[in-house]
């Protein structure tokens, strides 16, 4: 393959893309295990709290690998890097502006629309970058940061994996409806996975919503579901879902059109 100026360009191997996707998937599975350990590992709440910084530290190599693999030859172009920088800065500013407003996550609108326009890997990287930049600027780094980075990366990547429809007037309406529905699901799932990182030690023992060491996975799952329902699902997560739907419906068509004019090739 050659460019318009006659320079040879090495084509990107489909097998390389598959390996990239597989390894990114493996990194996400590692992160999912870090979230879901309370259902498979026995620990008393005090031990769980002491282990969280180590679990978060263990996720850092997975983040580095994810960043390195996502920025491969297909993604590493001047236009892609520029868009990542701009959108990451916008996302960080939006996230910081919403700090302290319970449940409002307007940044989900950006992650979902960008993931939809540019694909799962771009959405994944934008989620990582947005949390990293906003945490750095706001001074919010802590054991929760790697968990937030992966959770938001999954939100952006999931939008890129949704089925695609023909771009037409009817198709655009269906697309916005699909993205709004995804925004609701992503908002509630985000709340659930972020609850997991601190639930084992957030509540004392002996209640219906407590983590119980050596309990059957089903019992802890039921306790976690009840904990999430009464602490976030009916409040923070619902506000997040409403905010995301309203944002996608109001600005989705215009933002998608603007993003797509950049005509990035990676998916």
UniProtKB/TrEMBL annotation:
It comes from the Bacteria. InterPro entries: ECF_substrate-spec_UCP037395. Keywords: Membrane, Transmembrane, Transmembrane helix. The chain crosses the membrane at residues 21-39, 51-69, 76-94, 122-141, 176-198, 239-259. This is ECF transporter S component. It comes from Cryobacterium melibiosiphilum. The lineage of its organism: Bacteria, Bacillati, Actinomycetota, Actinomycetes, Micrococcales.
């Amino acid at each position: 393959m050659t460019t318009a100026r006659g320079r040879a360009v090495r084509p990107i191997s489909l097998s390389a893309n598959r390996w990239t996707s597989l390894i990114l998937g493996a990194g996400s599975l590692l992160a999912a295990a870090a979230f879901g350990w309370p259902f498979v590992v026995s620990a008393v709440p005090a031990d769980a709290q002491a282990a969280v910084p180590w679990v978060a530290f263990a996720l850092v190599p997975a983040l580095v690998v994810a960043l390195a693999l996502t920025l491969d030859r297909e993604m590493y172009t001047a236009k892609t890097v520029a868009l990542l920088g701009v959108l990451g800065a916008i996302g960080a500013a939006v996230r910081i502006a919403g700090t302290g407003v319970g449940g409002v996550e307007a940044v989900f609108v950006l992650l979902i629309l960008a993931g939809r326009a540019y694909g799962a890997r771009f959405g994944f990287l934008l989620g990582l970058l947005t949390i990293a930049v906003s945490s750095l600027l706001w001074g919010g780094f802590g054991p929760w940061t790697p968990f937030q980075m992966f959770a938001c990366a999954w939100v952006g990547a999931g939008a890129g994996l949704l089925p695609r429809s023909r771009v037409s007037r009817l198709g655009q309406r269906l697309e916005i409806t699909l993205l709004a529905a995804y925004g609701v699901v992503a908002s509630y799932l985000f709340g659930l996975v972020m609850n997991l990182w601190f639930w084992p030690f957030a509540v004392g023992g002996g209640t219906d919503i407590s983590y119980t060491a050596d309990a059957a996975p089903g019992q802890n799952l039921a306790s976690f579901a009840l904990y999430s329902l009464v602490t976030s699902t009916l409040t923070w997560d619902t506000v997040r879902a409403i905010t995301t739907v309203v944002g996608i419906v109001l600005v989705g068509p215009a933002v998608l059109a603007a993003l797509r004019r950049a005509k990035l090739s990676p998916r």
